[in-house]
Amino acid sequence: MKRLEAALAETATAVNQMLDNLLPAVTSAERRVVDAMRYSVMGGGKRIRPFLVRHSAKLFDVADAHALRVAAAIEMLHCYSLVHDDLPAMDDADLRRGRPSVHRQFDEATAILAGDGLLTMAFEVLAHPDTHANPLVRSELVLALARAGGGAGMVGGQMIDLEAENAQLDLPAITRLQALKTGAIFEFSCIAGPILGQAPAEAHAALRDYARALGLAFQIADDLLDIESSEAVTGKPVGRDQVAGKATFVSLLGVEGARKRAQDLAEHAADRLAQFSNRADLLCDMAQFVVDRRS
Amino acid sequence: MKRLEAALAETATAVNQMLDNLLPAVTSAERRVVDAMRYSVMGGGKRIRPFLVRHSAKLFDVADAHALRVAAAIEMLHCYSLVHDDLPAMDDADLRRGRPSVHRQFDEATAILAGDGLLTMAFEVLAHPDTHANPLVRSELVLALARAGGGAGMVGGQMIDLEAENAQLDLPAITRLQALKTGAIFEFSCIAGPILGQAPAEAHAALRDYARALGLAFQIADDLLDIESSEAVTGKPVGRDQVAGKATFVSLLGVEGARKRAQDLAEHAADRLAQFSNRADLLCDMAQFVVDRRS
After folding, report:
1. Shortest alpha-carbon distance between residue A50 and chain B (Å)
2. Would an 8 Å CB–CB cutoff place A178 in contact with chain B?
3. Residues of chain B positioned with their CB less than 8 A from the CB of A25
4. CB contact under 8 A, B30 and A156
5. Which end of chain A has the least Cβ crowding within 10 Å, N or C?
6. Residue B182 in contact with residue A152, Cβ under 8 Å?
7. Where are the beta strands (DSSP E) in A48-108?
């Protein structure tokens, strides 16, 4: 996995630079919200979604300058979701990526606005001519991200998750929750490549299937980490699902069953990229990485 | 003003129908957030922004089916901003358009998510091929709305407004606050017409100037209403700026000075549409309406 770690680090450096360029600090009266937006997006993280955008784009020889802008946009959207999910009315989390969450570092009102600003800016970046010369590509990116992020995607998934404490969800219901809450954004990240590369439908389908298996494997691994890891390692509170009495993949499948299911999904994800042979090696590594990660 | 009232009512009916079509109720597990989104957008309101979109579009013979989708998108964005601004951490408002605000009718977490969902959906609607056959037009609409709604627009303005209690703003600062907080969205609503109609730069400039004057007149009238009207008429709490000790156009210009400035702006707005002669009559009526309105 040395080559994957190197590639992840390289993407993190490149996307951090792009985020810094796209979202510079300001000195005008609204600087507090811009500072909070920057605090959120510059706070580290593994940058898995940006990695998926860049490496799905490489399959179709997309210019990296274009892919990096989409990578930055998806990270903005991901960070907005973390900022809002951490709010007292939602998950009430004090820690994020080992630092105070945005509403703890600033205040609740600023955190709400910073999330709103990041979500809005993700679309600004995608629609800008610098992201792709062809406006059809830009429109398709916007449409795909909006669908992935909205009521039929991430926002809907978070709603179901909030209500999950009161409803013992079964496996199909948990799977759908995950597909909306985290899967849709993984899917966007992976089809950003074929959209940018104006690739044929088979390529879209392969990356979509890869992303769905990857996203589900990621969430199962997250549930395993929630009971097996520690706050010091993950940089955020752990064991919360158990305390809340929520059904998870682990409570439904058991630890061993969940681990096996995640591994099967990682292998299925890699299989779907066979048509790209060794050009997809890093994406295949990533499928294994999301299962093996310790944080 | 009979013709304006009729035109406003006609737009309200048409945009309500479009919103109902674009955002149907669902029965799946995430229905609570969709219900909250619908509660927010179907809650009435004068639909001034949709009116501006439709009537700026009519100047360029844009198909009404296209203009109505953009009108619905801007209303989604406007409603998201109301839902989030009403939250306890922001303006803490229990009433909106004469009904409980979304977090009072549902709960805070659902209100945060409903706002996020409406903001996201506004971009989904704009980027969809049904909004315009030309993807360049769709991209330009998305880019313009994102700029108007983000940290350098509405979100930035709301940040300044939240901090205004601690900083006695002067007239240039209040004017900039307004230009960001409410002006940018008025501006988007008015340039949506020339964008949809792929109109020449002079038309863009005229509508932009009209919108800026209109937006400022609207805000000054709002400040006047805040001290002169009652909750029963406006459907929301009044007198809050005075209680909070915030500087407003009225505290800086006096009641008579503020009223004169709003009237001058309404006339300036109308003047900038002279090139469209009587085709712009309703937009000119609107400039006077925002100054004269009692709620």
Report:
1. 20
2. no
3. none
4. yes
5. N
6. no
7. 95-96, 99-100
Helix (H) or strand (E) holding B100: strand B99-100
Cα(B167)–Cα(B184) distance, integer angstroms: 22
**Least confident window among A140-144, A176-180, A183-187, B243-247:** B243-247
CB-CB neighbours of A232 under 10 Å = 9
Better-predicted residue by pLDDT, B246 or B35 = B35
Give the confidence band of A231 by pLDDT, cuts at 50, 70, 90: low
CA distance B288 to A159: 43
Give residue for tokens 């013992």.
A168
B244 touches chain A (CB under 8 A): no
Given an 8 Å threshold on Cβ–Cβ distance, is A142 in contact with B162? no
Q: Is the pLDDT of residue A133 over 70?
A: yes
Asked whether the beta carbons of residue B156 and residue A30 sit closer than 8 angstroms, the reply is yes
- Per-residue pLDDT, averaged over A120-126, amounts to 98
CATH for A2-292 is 1.10.600.10
Q: In Å, how far is B224's CA from the nearest CA of chain A? A: 24
Q: What is the pLDDT of residues A165-202, one digit of tens each?
A: 777 899 999 999 999 999 999 999 999 999 999 999 99
Tell me: pLDDT of A262 over 60: yes
A–B interface: beta-carbon pairs under 8 A = 172
Among chain B residues, the shortest Cα distance to A107 is held by: B89
pLDDT in tens, A232-241: 555 655 566 6
- Give the nearest chain A residue to B159 (CA atoms): A30
* Interchain pair B163, A127: CB under 8 A: no
For residue A167, the chain B residue with the least C-alpha distance is B29
A117/B151 touch (CB, cutoff 8 Å), yes or no: yes
Q: Name which residue leads in pLDDT, A51 or A231.
A: A51
**% of chain B at pLDDT higher than 90:** 86
Contacts of A85 (CB under 8 A, 6+ apart): A91, A93, A158
Where does the pLDDT of residue B278 fall: very low under 50, low under 70, confident under 90, or very high at 90 and above? Answer: very high
Q: What is the mean pLDDT of residues A123-141?
A: 98
C-alpha span between A149 and A180 (Å, rounded) = 9
Angle in degrees, CA B260, B264, B270, rounded to 5: 145
- What pLDDT is stored for residue A91 in this prediction? 92
B113 at A interface, C-beta within 8 A: yes
Residue A84's closest chain B neighbor by CA? B112
B29 and A121 in contact by Cβ < 8 A? no
Q: How far apart are CA A146 and CA A77, in angstroms?
A: 10
Residue A294 pLDDT more than 90? no
DSSP secondary structure letters along A192-223 = HHHHHTT--HHHHHHHHHHHHHHHHHHHHHHH
Strand (E) or helix (H) holding B95: strand B95-96
**A35 in reach of chain B (CB within 8 A):** no
Query: What single DSSP character describes residue B99?
Result: E
